[in-house]
Amino acid sequence: MQSISEKKQIRKVIFASSVGTLIEWYDFYIFGSLAPIIASQFFPKTNPTAALLSTLATFAAGFIVRPFGALVFGRLGDKVGRKYTFLLTLILMGGSTFAIGLIPGYEKIGFLAPMLVLLLRLIQGLALGGEYGGAATYVAEHAPTNRRGYFTSWIQTTATLGLLLSLGIILITRKSLATDPADSIRVFEDWGWRIPFWFSVILVGMSIYIRLKMHESPMFSKLKAEGKISVNPIKESLMHKSNLKMVLLALFGATMGQGVVWYTGQFYAQTFMENTIKIDFEQTRTILICAIVAATPLFIFFGNLSDKIGRKWIIMAGLLSAVILYRPIYHQMISVASVTDSQVDNSKTHIDRVLKPNTGKGYSLQNTTTYTVYENGITEKKIHVDTLYSGEIEKPQLVDKVSKQLPENRYWMMVALIFLQILFVTMSYGPIAAFLVELFPTKIRYTSMSLPYHLGNGVFGGLTPFIAVLLGTMYSGDLLVGLWYPIIIAGFCLLIGSLYLSNKIDNNVND
Amino acid sequence: MNSIKKFFGIIWMILGAGTYGMLVKTAITQISLKPTTDTIVQWSIFVIIFLPITIGFLIFGWLAFKGAYDHLPSSSDEIV
To answer: Residue A159, class by beta-carbon neighbours within 10 Å (0-12 exposed, 13-18 middle, 19+ buried)?
Structure first.
């Protein structure tokens, strides 16, 4: 039975750890969410080297560096302590995020701009690699034995809430920079995209203040006082067969599958809605926001449940649900946004033409927007940009954009389908911090749990949207071909986890 | 149950080597079909990043085959 002061203390520990981790995820995801704008500002496609840097910055740096961060900061956390290590990762992440918002564009400082962005993105990836393991370990080492799953599940909500915060801040900023919505979007794409990056410094400042007041983990302090801390945590984690086998089991039997389920439900789903079934930018974001808000409490529910029935089968149930239900869910998503079986309602269909006169570039543009309303309530918006009065100099390319607005009933059906996917995320992700903490001894815990986590989430998971889209371009006849990647990875992880993992809760993580 | 775990150890080793071979073959095909910077960088990253993971999977299969997972440690003393 915990005393009131103990309860108060653990609440402070959870709050301090969760807020910092949430902010790190926010910092990491705003770069991803704003990648197209960042690419246009810093990485002009006309310069091949800048294009190469763009690919590296947006594709590679975000996930490849995370396992390295896990090793670098994991080692530090096991030698110096949890508190100062995850304070350092927070400062690095906050500083690099703020700095990205300050870098002048390619047009002003040339090649230095993309180089700086790449460097700062690498620092972000490293910092994130060190943060999560520290926060999860710190909370778990404060938590009572029978509530470890519940307390660490608060840390598990932070990645999703960080994504939610980044979506919300971007949407609000995008809409509030001018009274006219079109002007506001234009200002946002010009310089307003920097605001979410600058906003980070306020959040990070608050979090550093809170974390500075915290004490070191009691288990680590005890180990340090007894002179039992590890001399070389990386060597002990990876070179000792008895620990290496647990690192490999954690990766292939749990985090690999959990990573793809996480990124499919929250990132690939967004890409699929926007690019494949062409749902409008804002609706895509608000659908995701509604589903996240509804599903987030389930992280806590499954973390708490894992204290009662064990971690393994909850994680495996999440993976199994994903393997069985992904294709039916995505079939349903296509059907909800489909207009093929619906007649056009001619009374509501209309065309807007806007002429953008000669801007000194030798041509004028005519935007033709066709709003086609279908009987099932979906409004399809087609924007066709045409060149008029073109002179001899360069002509802009013709642009055709299609997006759909869902009516209310279909909107909520889509929310429900995304909610289901996030439900699988909460099952596989909610109990995993407690599960990982219990696999490894205190003296090498930070390093040993961070590595499989970031390989599973950063590499297998972070690659999900990219590989899924790549499969879609290689086999363009099947809209759902991209789902085979998460289904196969989650399927193998399910098999390995079911065969080799134990469902037993480790009552003693002090050793 | 332990013999099933060991048998699957062989499967993991074959699967790891086979999947990585397929990845390299696909990378070569895709790069030769479209030899642009993006394609070369993307597929090279796949091939490089999945190499240590494949080695890890082969070690996992080998350990499973040798019976290392017949018993999981119940205390940290068994680990380090």
So the answer is: buried
Please answer yes or no on whether A470 and B42 come within 8 Å at the CB atom: yes
Q: Is A459 on the interface with B (CB under 8 A)?
A: yes
Topology at the third CATH level for domain A4-337+408-500: Growth Hormone; Chain: A; (1.20.1250)
How is chain A split into domains, by residue range? Answer: 4-337+408-500, 350-405
Contact list, B41 vs chain A (CB under 8 Å)? 52, 55-56, 59-60
Q: Helix (H, G, I), strand (E, B), or coil: what is residue A353?
A: strand
**A204's tokens:** 């990070």
Kind and range of the H or E run holding B49: helix B37-65
E strand spans, A357-486: 364-373, 379-388, 399-405
* Adjacent-strand bridge partners of A241: none
Strand order in the sheet with A364-373: A350-356, A364-373, A379-388, A399-405
Are the C-beta atoms of A33 and A289 separated by less than 8 Å?
no
Nearest residue to A135 (alpha-carbon basis) of A79, A94, A74: A74
DSSP string, A37-56: HHHHHH--TTSHHHHHHHHI
In chain A, residues with a C-beta closer than 8 Å to the C-beta of B68 are: 241, 245
Residue for token pair 């034995």: A145
Instruction: Provide the β-strand partners of residue A382.
Output: A370, A402
Is B48 exposed, middle or buried, given 0-12, 13-18 or 19+ CB atoms closer than 10 A? exposed
Asked if A241's CB is within 8 angstroms of B63's CB, the reply is yes
- What radius of gyration, in Å, describes the C-alpha atoms of chain B? 17
3-state SS of chain B: helix, strand, coil percent to 5? Answer: 80, 0, 20
| Pairwise CB contact (< 8 Å): A441 & B76 | yes
pLDDT in tens, A61-105: 777 888 999 999 989 988 888 888 988 998 999 999 999 999 998
Other CB atoms within a 10 A radius of the CB of residue A286 amount to 16
Enumerate the domain spans of chain B: 2-65
User: Of the candidates A132, A414, A469, A465, which has an alpha carbon nearest to the alpha carbon of residue A289?
Assistant: A414
Dmax (CA) of chain A: 82
Residue of A nearest to B33 (CA): A474
Q: What is the pLDDT of residue A466?
A: 82
Q: Using CB atoms within 10 A of its CB, is residue A431 exposed (0-12), middle (13-18) or buried (19+)?
A: buried
Q: Which residues of chain A have pLDDT under 50?
A: none
